[in-house]
Design a protein that fits this description.
alpha/beta; 12-stranded mixed beta sheet; 10 helices; 15% strand; disordered C terminus
């Protein structure tokens, strides 16, 4: 029997909705037929969630490590955090440290081949900052852990829409100077590669958005379209990528033009995420592409106004789990196909000197032409004896003029 995919889940900031949406996503035990969940959290927080939120989670099992996780169970790797005091909706240093501990434990489990994919619950970017952790978010941390050979790319997607970003967590004041031809072209190429390997799209069509309103209005509202974005699109198109644009972002989504493309490349965070979240509702998933491992998360934040109220919607977290499994399978199939491509069959043609004349097919003879057909002779005419001695005479039948 094939081993189920092991999904590692981090609890995020425990003063937010992270643990609640994880446990609600796993409340239906049929999900355990699809994968083996491993939650990196503190057992005391799980017990508190069950009591406070009235959750019934079948199959809960406390395990010392992800290596001990069992199929058919909701496995809890107990982190034994120094402080698990819950302050509902108020991220603090303790909950930030707990989020980092959960994330690092999941990464360690992946490096030890104990889990297959990582699904992260939301964190507070402010609360996680410390003397030992200075990354602005999951994307930057995971990119650093993967190594300098990998360049992570943020992609938000659902079943109909996929949006990637050229820049991620960057102040607007620094935006224009960060958009270069090289960055845009690199983002197009990486997005295209991800759509092929992780989403199974053979020849993806990518729409590239402009940076300035109305695509810069011919330079009146900015020159980045002319100097950076258009040349990047042309360079990628010359290399065989199906990249189009730039398109003004305001009308692009409102007109429904996004439906004509496999992916949309936005220049900055809110340009892509604001329309995406409006259109996708609760079904959106955040995916960190370009890494050697699969990481997804729900497309919402800590939702402190809903924390520990029992009202948090688990749909996006559930979708993040399902989509991580889909991407893992797509990537495995793609890697296998690339490792064992079909060989091109080339039939060698013989040299002229090697050619031999083709004879008649077995059982076939040339059909005589009509004018060459033997004439019918008088049946009463006797055959003249041969003048050659001792030569037997063969009687021929000329009743049929065609060969059999």
């Amino acid at each position: 029997m094939e081993k189920l995919i092991r999904v590692g889940l981090t609890h995020g900031d425990f003063n937010g909705v992270g643990l609640e949406v994880i446990l609600k996503s796993l409340a239906d035990e049929t999900i355990l037929e699809l994968m083996t969940p491993v939650i990196f959290t503190d057992w005391r927080l799980v017990e508190y969630a069950k009591r406070t939120l009235g959750l019934e989670i079948p199959g809960l099992k406390r395990v010392p490590s992800a290596a001990e996780a069992q199929e058919g169970a909701v496995n809890i790797v107990d982190l034994r955090l120094p402080d698990t005091t819950v302050h509902s909706g108020v991220p603090n240093a303790a909950s930030g440290a707990g989020a980092v501990a959960s994330l690092e434990a999941a990464m360690k489990a992946y490096e030890d081949n104990e889990i297959d994919v990582i699904v992260t619950a939301p964190i507070s970017k402010e609360a996680i900052q410390s003397d030992t952790f200075h990354y602005p978010g999951h994307t930057e941390y995971l990119g650093a852990k993967a190594g300098k050979d990998y360049n992570p790319q943020m992609i938000l997607f659902d079943d109909l829409l996929r949006v990637a970003l050229v820049t991620t967590h960057l102040p607007i004041a620094e935006l224009a100077q960060s958009i270069t031809k090289e960055k845009v072209a690199d983002a197009i190429r990486r997005f295209s590669a991800t759509l092929k390997s992780d989403f199974g799209i053979v020849k993806p069509k990518i729409a590239v958005l402009s940076l300035n309103p109305h695509c810069g209005d011919g330079g009146l509202l900015g020159n980045e379209e002319k100097t950076c974005i258009q040349p990047a699109i042309a360079e990628c198109a010359d290399a065989g990528e199906l990249a189009f644009g730039p398109y003004a972002a305001d009308g692009f989504f409102g007109s429904g033009a996004f439906r004509n493309f496999d992916g949309i490349l936005a220049m900055y965070h809110d340009q892509g995420l604001a329309p995406f979240k409006t259109l996708s509702g609760t079904n959106g998933v955040n995916f960190t592409a370009g890494l050697p491992f699969v990481r997804t998360s729900p497309d919402h934040g800590t939702a402190c106004d809903l924390a520990w109220t029992g009202n948090a919607d688990p749909t996006s977290m559930r979708e993040a789990i399902y989509k991580a499994i889909d991407i893992f399978r797509n990537r495995s199939r793609y890697a296998e196909a690339c490792a064992n491509p079909l060989r091109k069959q080339v039939q060698e043609r013989p040299q002229k000197s090697d050619k031999t004349p083709r004879g008649p097919l077995p059982g076939k003879q040339d059909t005589p032409k009509k004018e060459d057909a033997p004439k019918k002779e008088d049946a009463t005419k006797k055959e003249e004896p041969s003048t050659k001695e001792n030569t037997p005479v063969k009687e021929e039948n000329h009743n049929n003029t065609t060969a059999s």
